[in-house]
Amino acid sequence: MKKLKSTHLLITVLTYFLSANLALANLDTNSTNPPKREHFDTFNSFYQSLPLLSMPIDIKNMPSGKYIDSQFFNFDGDDYRYYDNPEDKTNRYFTLKDLKAIGRFEIDDIKFVVFHFNFDSEGEGFVDDISLINAFDKNGQYLDELILSGTTGHEDHIFSYFASIDQALFHVQLDAHYELGYIREVKDDNYHYTKSTNLTYQFHDKQFWLQENPINCQTKNLKNYLNKIEQQQFADIADVAIFNDYINCFPVSENLITYKKIAQYLQQSHNHFLSNAEFKKFKERIKIITED
Fold it and tell me: How much is the average pLDDT of 167-195?
């Protein structure tokens, strides 16, 4: 990782890593050996072994869970079993650490499992103290995932997630800290910027989608949206999250020039905080605008 330009961000990052290291040190004060992990041959035996979580679910108050191997763990569209080998870190940016299965619950025929894990980073950012939910169909086939809590980031940003689950709604509060010296040209390379936004997801059509609420287009102004982004010279998490509202209120075909200017900033934004489904939809819309 490049040398951090901001003392403030450096302290923040060190705080996160120190907290993580203390937590890991407390896992077994009498031994340096990794905890013994359970293996399950079938999804059903794995699923039924987990405690049943009742609604509402507060991610801050969860069972301690149990250590497991990564047989039924899915994250970020990749096969992270490749990273699940602490003894061999050769040619890896991350090593999966301390994977736990916390609990389970069902909504209709969908089975949900909450996992908790850390990654040891080799310098390509950090993924720390993560609670993640995996969704499976009734036969145990993996469908989708959503980060519920924890911290991710790199030298130019830190994202902190805090979630709760109430019936079929997944509420995620996202706090972002940006180091603008890495994002844009500024005179003061210690300049930082914070932003928070709230995202509510529903699970349908086999994926996590943002809840669709009625939009009062009378309160929306596309030019003001562009002006705000241009003034700060980058698109923050709230700008990304609200993009769909403007698309629904102002047709791209009638406002193409304005949308092209907006898309220049959105393309370069940190938008990976969105669920897989919303991320793909976001990317497709930006592609249509920029290639039109």
Answer: 80
Q: Are the CB atoms for 158 and 12 separated by under 8 Å?
A: yes
Q: Which of 175, 223, 206, 176 is nearest to 276 (CA)?
A: 206
Please state whether 227 falls in left (phi above 0), alpha (psi between -120 and 50) or beta. alpha
- Interatomic CA distance for residues 138 and 65, integer angstroms: 22
> Nearest to residue 62, comparing CAs of 100, 97, 35?
100
> Could you tell me if residue 170 is left (phi over 0), alpha (psi between -120 and 50 degrees) or otherwise beta?
beta
Q: How far apart are CA 72 and CA 38, in angstroms?
A: 12
For all residues of the chain together, what is the average pLDDT? 84
- How confident is the model over 191-210, as a mean pLDDT? 94
Contacts of 138-141 spanning 24+ positions with Cβ under 8 A? 138/109, 138/110, 138/111, 139/43, 140/42, 140/43, 140/44, 140/47, 140/72, 140/111
Per-residue pLDDT of 234-278, as tens digits, reads 999 999 999 999 999 999 999 999 999 999 999 999 999 999 999
For residue 148, give both structure tokens. Answer: 């519920």
d(CA 262, CA 225): 8
d(CA 38, CA 188): 51
Secondary structure (3-state) at 237: helix
The answer to whether 9 and 185 are in contact (CB under 8 A) is: no
> What are the pLDDT digits (tens) for 79-90?
555 566 656 555
Scored b (16 or more CB within 10 A) or e, 211-250 reads eeeeeeeeeeebeebbeebeebebbbbebbbebbbbbebb
Chain mean position to CA 108: 25
The rounded distance, in Å, linking the Cα atoms of 277 and 137 is 17
The answer to whether the CB of 153 falls within 8 A of the CB of 143 is: no
